[in-house]
Amino acid sequence: MERPTNKQSTTNAKTKPQGKKKGPKKKKFNFRKLILGSIIATILAIICAMAIYIVVIMNGFKILEMNIDKIETTTESTLIYAQEEGKDAQPKEIAKIYKGENRESVNIKDVPERLKQAFIATEDRRFEQHSGVDFWAIGRALVKDVIHMSAVEGGSTITQQLAKNVFLSSEKTAFRKGTEMSIAFALDEKYTKDEILERYLNRIFFGSNAYGIKAAAKVYFGKSNLNDLEIWEMATLAALPKAPSKYSPLANPDLSKERRGVVLKLMADQGYITEAERAKAAAVDYTPPAVAATSTKDYASYVDYVMNEAEDMYDIDEDELLTKGYRIYTTMNTKAQQIMETTYANPSFFQKDATDGQKIQSAMVIVDNKTGGLMAMIGGRDYKSRGFSRIYSKRQPGSSFKPIAAYGPALESGDYTPYSILDDSQTSFGNGTYSPRNYDRVTHGQVTMLEAVKKSYNLAPVWLLDKMGVNAGINFAKNLGIQLNPTKDRNLAIALGGLTDGVSPLQMATAYSAFANQGSLNKTHAILRITDAQGKEIAAYKAEKKQVIQPKTAYYMTLLLQGVVETGGTGTKAKFNRPVAGKTGSTGLDIKGIEQYDRDVWFVGYTPEWTAAVWEGFDKVDSKHYVTVGSGGTAALFKEIMSKSLDGVPITNFVKPANVPTPTETPTGVTDLAAVYEIDKKSVKLTWTPVGEKTSYNVYRKGSKETDAKLLIQSPTPIVNDSSVFSGETYQYYVVPFSADTNVEGARSNVASVEVPKDDTLPDGTKPSTSPGVSPTPSPGNGMDPTNPTQSPGTKPTPTPTPGNTVKPGGSTNPSPTPSSSPNSSNGPSPTPTPSNKPGNGTPDKPKDGKPDGEQVIVPKTP
C-alpha cells in the first residue's frame, strides 16, 4: 500500500463532514464600483441641476425683458357694481378702485438706514447675501411647515415679492412659484440690491390707499420727509406689508401695535437697534395725524367692506384687487346707501359737538332678512376711505341685548310666552353679589314679559336669566352668531348687555335678522360674484342659511319688540307707516357728576323686509365726551333712513308661522287695591276696580308674624270682607286676577296694608282660646257661616313664593302662587282656603249674612 502523502492528508483534513453541501461563494463588496457609481450619479445630478438652473434663469430673464415696462406703468382698475340678489336690473357701477392714485416715489438715498433695516429684518434678513432666492430660508420654512403640519412660515425674499407684485398674480401653484423664483434671479442679476429695495419700497401697498413708503408716511404720520420718522414709526410701516388692512394703525391700532412689537424684536435680535430703543418704541401709542391724506369717497364704507370681504372670504388680497381689473357685483341698495349718507351728513340728527369740537360718532348697518345681503352701511360720520369703520367696533349694547341674552332663551325653552309673569322686584342675586336696579330706581313687582320689554325694565330680565341659568343666554347668543367670552361673561350681567368685549353693529343687525326671518339666519355678505376683466367668473357667494331658533320663538319675539315702538314703549321714535319691531339700548356712565348720561346708545330693529342696527357714541368716552340725547336719537335715525329707503316698496306684515299658537293674553293687573278696617264689623274690607269680564281674583294675605303670603280666598267679585283678622295685628293684602276661561294669571296687584286695633276679644266677641298653639277643627253647628270657603279634605296646599321671588313664570300654564299652609295665625283660628285656582271650586254662593250681592265675607272659626 502506498503511504498517503502530506498533500492527501491535508486534503482529507479539510474535507467537511459528509451530508453537508458546500454553499456558493460570497461575492466580495466592490468599493471601487460604489465610488464610481456615486461619482457618476453626482455628475448627472449636477448636470441636471445646472440645466434646470439655466432654464429657470433664462426663463426669468425672458419674462423680465418682455415685461420690464410693468415696473413703471399702472395697472387696470377694478370695478364694483350694485346688483341686489334676485334682481334682473342692469348692474350699476358704484366705485372704481385702482393703484397709482396715491403713489409717490422716493430715491433710495432719501430712505434712512434704519427704515431699510426695518424692512430687511422683517421681510428678508439675508437680503444682502442671497441671489434673489434664499434657499436657506426656504429650507427653514419647509422644516417648520412639516413640524407644524401647516404653512406657518414663508420663504419669499424681497426680490421675490417684487417679482410677484409686478409680473404675477396671487395664484398659489408650483408653476407660479417657480416662475416667481426665476424672475427673482433675473432681477438680482440685472439690478443692484439698493435698486431692488428702492423699487420694492416704491411699489409695495401699505393700505389706506397708500402706495409706496413715502405716501404711507404721509397717510399714517403726516410726514413727507422719511428722515423725520422715529423708530416706532418705521417699525409700524414695516409691519404693514404682511396684511395692510389688518395691521393698519388707523383701522386697528391695537393689532398694529402688536405687530410693531414683532418688527422691533426682529430688529433688536439682528443688532439693528438696542434693547432700550426697542422697549421705548414698543410702548408708544399711535395717534392719527391731524390731517389725514385720505379723501372722502361716495360709498366709502361699503366699498371698504367689499374689499375686506374679498380678502377674507375669497382669498384675494387687497393689492391684487387694485391691479387685476376685476368686476365685483354686490348686494348694495343704492337708494338706501345714498339716503344713509345724506342723513349722516346732516348734523341735526346728532347731538351738538363736544366743547373741543369733536363730533359724536355713529354707525349703521342694514341687512336683508331673506338673504343676508348687506343693503347699506356707514362706518362713521365723515368716514374716510380705508379708515376706521365702526360697523366692526364692539361696544356695550345695553338693553338691546336683553332679547338675545334673556327673553329669547326664555321663549325658546317653551316655558314662557310674551304674557308670562316675571318679577321686577328689587332683588340681590348670586348670594348678594349682584344687585341691579331699574333705570329710574322704581320697582314694579309682578309684570308680564310684554310690559318688561316695552318699558325696558332691568330687574325682570335678570330674574328671568337667573331662573334659566346663564348658559341658556350664552348658547342663545352663540346660535345668533355672537360668541361671548366663555369665562368672563358667565354672569347675570349679560342679561342687561354687560359684556366683556361688547358687540358690533354688524353683529347686532345679523342676530336680529333671525327674529324677522322666522328663526332662520343667513350668512351676512356683500359680494354676489367676482369676474375677471373678460367676464370669466372666479368667485361666487354660496347661500348659507341655518335654522338657529324656533319659528315660534322668532314670532313671539316680534310680538314683544313691536310693543317697544308703540305708545308707552321706549322706542316710539322708530315707528313709521310699516310694521316695525325693535329694541332700544343704552349704557350708563360711571363718571362722577354725570351718571345720568350715557356711554353708548343703540336702536336695533326690523321690518318684514330689512333689519338695521344703529349705534351712537364717542370713540373714547371721558368727562367731556358722552351721550346726552339718549336712545331716542338712534331710534330717530332708524326711522328716517328705513322709512325713506323702503318708500315705494309694497308694505307687508310679519307672518305668523304655521302651527304656532297665538299667545294667550293675561288679565290686566289690579293697581288700586284698598284695605280698610271696619270697627263696627271687626273686619277688613278689600275693594278694587274690576279688570274685565270673566275675570276672577286670588286674594292673598300676610300677617306680621308670617313669612309668606297665603291664599285667603278666590273671589269672582272685586269686594271681599276679611273677618278672620285678630286685634293688634297688621296685615298685608294683594290680589292676582286670572281668566276664568284660560286660568292664566295676570300680574300681582299693589300691596295694601291695614292695622287692626288692639282688643281683648276675638272679632266675634268670644274670648281667646286657652290653647292658642292648637289649631281648632271646625264642626257643624259651630257658628261658622256655611257659605265660607273651606279646605277640601285631604288637600295639602303648596308653598307660595315670598315677595321678590313670588312667581315661577310659565308659558300657557297657570304660574300663580298657592298657599303654603292654612292662613290661620299661630295665635288664633282662621279659615282655610280652597287651594284650587279654578274659580268654580270653593267659591261661595250668594252671601247669606245680609251683605249685598258680590261682597265676599270671611269670618273666623270658633273653637
UniProtKB/TrEMBL annotation:
InterPro entries: Beta-lactam/transpept-like, FN3_dom, FN3_sf, Glyco_trans_51, Glycosyltr_51/Transpeptidase, Ig-like_fold, Lysozyme-like_dom_sf, PBP_transglycosylase. Residues 1-26, 749-863 are annotated as: Disordered. Residues 1-13 have a biased composition (Polar residues). The keyword Transmembrane helix applies. Residues 17-26 have a biased composition (Basic residues). Residues 765-795, 803-829 have a biased composition (Low complexity). Residues 666-759 form the Fibronectin type-III domain. Pfam families: Transgly, Transpeptidase. Residues 845-854 have a biased composition (Basic and acidic residues). The chain crosses the membrane at residues 34-58. Keywords: Carboxypeptidase, Cell membrane, Cell shape, Cell wall biogenesis/degradation, Glycosyltransferase, Hydrolase, Membrane, Multifunctional enzyme, Peptidoglycan synthesis, Protease, Transferase, Transmembrane, Transmembrane helix. This is PBP1A family penicillin-binding protein.
